[in-house]
Amino acid sequence: MMQGVNFLKEEGIQLHFNSVIFKDNIERMKKIADFALKYADTIKFNPLDPWGRGREINKVLTPQQYKEVAKVIEELRKKYGEEKILSHVPYFDMKNQFVKTGSVQSKCCAGVTYLVINSDGSVQPCERLPIPVGNVLIQSLETIWNNDVLQSLRSIEEHIKGKCRSCELLYSCRGGCRGEAFFRTKNLYNEDNMCWLR
Questions:
Q1: What pLDDT, in 10s, does the model give residues 152-192?
Q2: Averaged pLDDT of the chain
Q3: Coil, strand or helix at 19
Q4: What is the 3-state secondary structure (H, E, C) of 106-120?
Q5: What is the 8-class DSSP label of residue 51?
Q6: Once rounded to an integer, what is the mean pLDDT over residues 148-152?
Q7: What are phi and psi of 169, to 5 degrees?
Q8: Which end of the chain is more exposed for a tag (fewer CB within 10 A), N or C?
């Protein structure tokens, strides 16, 4: 692998490394970033998803571990710069940003400004939210865009349940990652049970 990495660097091609964070490697995040940024332009930390094989190995982060990860990401961004240290899930940025500034600028964009179109033409709100909302091979994108599920995601504040409904951050964070809520509770509108600000 490293031979390929070096070849790409010699050719001036930007490199991006991804690292999956789970219960057993939180303590190694700084070493992972140090190693990755010797070779790559950026590194992105993604939490282990609670579905597929992620569900089987029982190493998904707890809300408190998400908070630990957010602190490590903040430290790494101070060391390397925000543009070098990326993260996927809203918790890493939104909750940490709120603690520091009292406000949030990042929101879950599933079905709002973002869609996934799969190779078979099927469309879903996000790669983390595999709810079929149409197929571009048989429907126009405009028709799909106006699907009931996507419309409800755009007005999630009206549909959200649980503690998120009364949270002061609801209109800023939109209830966190809808994919997480769906996979953990099987309900698109349930509270974000991974939020550590509740």
A1: 999 988 999 988 888 877 877 778 888 888 888 889 999 87
A2: 84
A3: strand
A4: CCCCECCCECEECCC
A5: S
A6: 95
A7: -90, -5
A8: N
pTM exceeding 0.85: no
Whole-number Å distance between alpha carbons of 156 and 161? 10
Residue pair 36/43 in contact (Cβ under 8 Å)? The answer is: yes
Q: Which of 113, 112, 71, 111 is nearest to 93 (CA)?
A: 71
**Beta-carbon count within 10 A of 46 CB:** 16
The two tokens of residue 125 are 């709100």
The SS3 call for residue 47 is strand
Name residue 137's amino acid.
L
Distance (Å, whole) CA 101 – CA 99: 6
Unique residue bearing structure tokens 């390397």: 80
Q: Compute the CA torsion angle 185, 190, 195, 198 (nearest 10 deg).
A: -130
SS3 call for 32: helix
In this prediction, residue 33 carries a pLDDT of 97
Could you tell me the two tokens for 102?
């009292």
